[in-house]
Amino acid sequence: MANLSSADHAQGVPHTGLQATTAAAGGTGHENSPEPELLGVNATVVVSLAMLVFIAILLWKGVPKVIAGALDRQIAAIRQQLDEAKTLRAEAEALRDSYAARVADAENAAAGMLTHAQAEADALIAKANVDAAELVERRGKMAEDKIAAAERAALAQVRAHAADAASRAAAALIAAKHGADADRALVDRTIAGLGRPG
User: Fold this and answer.
1) In the chain, fewer beta carbons within 10 Å around the N or the C end?
2) CA atoms within 13 Å, Cβ hemisphere of 159
3) DSSP symbols for 80-126
């Protein structure tokens, strides 16, 4: 068969399989040796068997249980963190709702106080208007009373001056023109005239 392959190669037919690999690498030799074998088994089978033995040792020593336990602990820790996060979120929402209720209560209280203050201010303004009107009326009455009193006093003073002037003028006339009897009659008439309102 080697002769046939050599003949084919000589005729221009390319080599295939191991001969092609050997021919491409430059012939036979230590560099182009076949895969090593152990007890008639090639390297791939040896590696596969070693891997199976390694996995069997891991299973025998309980490494998957350790890994599964570590993963379970990690999952439990994550669940605990999620539960704590849910609790914190619920507390935060409750606190937010509490503050929202407090703000609403404060706004309602402020609106009530504003309404009450507005009502008190309106009542005070109305009372001040009434008091001002009463004060103006009292002051006007007092001014009118003062004016009337001043008018009466002025009138009384004018009358007193007029009576005094008239009595002096009468006394002067009487003294100049009349005697004692005529004086008496004139004085009586004058006094009687002064007693009647003007």
Assistant:
1) N
2) 13
3) HHHHHHHHHHHHHHHHHHHHHHHHHHHHHHHHHHHHHHHHHHHHHHH
Q: How many CB atoms lie within 10 A of CB 15?
A: 15
Contact 5, 16 (CB under 8 A): no
The tally of CA atoms less than 13 A away on the side-chain side of residue 108 is 6
The residue written with tokens 């009487």 in the block is 174
SS (H, E, C) 125-185: HHHHHHHHHHHHHHHHHHHHHHHHHHHHHHHHHHHHHHHHHHHHHHHHHHHHHCCHHHHHH
Q: In terms of residues, how long is the chain?
A: 198
Per-residue pLDDT of the chain (198 residues; tens, 9 = 90+): 444 445 455 555 555 555 555 555 555 555 555 666 666 778 788 888 889 988 888 888 877 788 888 899 999 999 999 999 999 999 999 999 999 999 999 999 999 999 999 999 999 999 999 999 999 988 898 998 989 888 888 888 888 888 888 888 877 776 776 666 766 776 788 888 776 665
Q: At what angle do helices 63-177 and 43-61 cross, to 10 degrees?
A: 60
